Amino acid sequence: MSESTIRRYTDALVRHDGNALLSCYHHQASYSDPIHPDLRAERVAGLLRFRLARIGTVQSETIWLAGDERKAQMLWRVRWRARSAEGHATGRIRSLRVMSTFTFWEDEIVRQVDEFAPWAYLRQVHGLSGLVLGWLPGRLATERERAAQALDRFIEGQPPLAPVRGAEIVT
């Protein structure tokens, strides 16, 4: 059932459990949000690992909007303590309201589309410059490019994943 998969997903995120989080996804999953518009398969797993490495404590508040065996949609607020690229806590608390749409295949997420206000994200990540310039279309394109490069560097430095069903993925 989709609700149980999403509960496992949010619980794993809050617990910072990479193996449990990755086990919610199909090995050919796709993911999209305003900053990472079209990720597939290994890059989805790379993004999840990257995010867990860059966040500290996570809190999640979820409101269910709709769901069945094939699709679920939820509005949630996620709050996290940011970490630097070296993994040190920055002390900054970040928060986003996210509308997530999940598509499932055999109780695994095969497609996730997250929608949030890019301006709110840029404001939190880049401070004053994000507040003043974050609404400009060119700024979002620049942030997408920067985020893709950061993800590429992170993935290059990680051991490769072996996407085998039933196998535990080490993060």
Shape: globular
How are strands sequenced across the largest beta sheet?
2-1-6-5-4-3
**Secondary-structure element pattern, one letter each:** HHEEHEEEEHHH
Number of E-state strands: 6
Radius of gyration, in angstroms, nearest whole number:
16 Å
Compute the average pLDDT.
85
Low-confidence stretches: 163-171
The largest sheet is: 6 strands, mixed
Give structural notes.
A hairpin with a 6-residue loop joins strand 1 (25-32) and strand 2. The protein has 171 residues and is α+β, with helices and mostly antiparallel strands. The chain has 6 helices and 6 strands, in the order ααββαββββααα. Strands 2-1-6-5-4-3 form a 6-stranded mixed sheet, with helices on both faces.
Could you give a short description of this structure?
The chain has 171 residues and is an alpha+beta fold.
Helix/strand layout:
Blueprint: H1 2-15, H2 18-22, E1 25-32, E2 39-40, H3 42-54, E3 55-67, E4 71-83, E5 89-105, E6 108-115, H4 118-126, H5 128-133, H6 137-156
Parallel strand pairs: 1-6
Antiparallel strand pairs: 1-2, 3-4, 4-5, 5-6
Give the key terms.
globular; 39% helix; 171 residues; 6 helices; single chain; alpha+beta
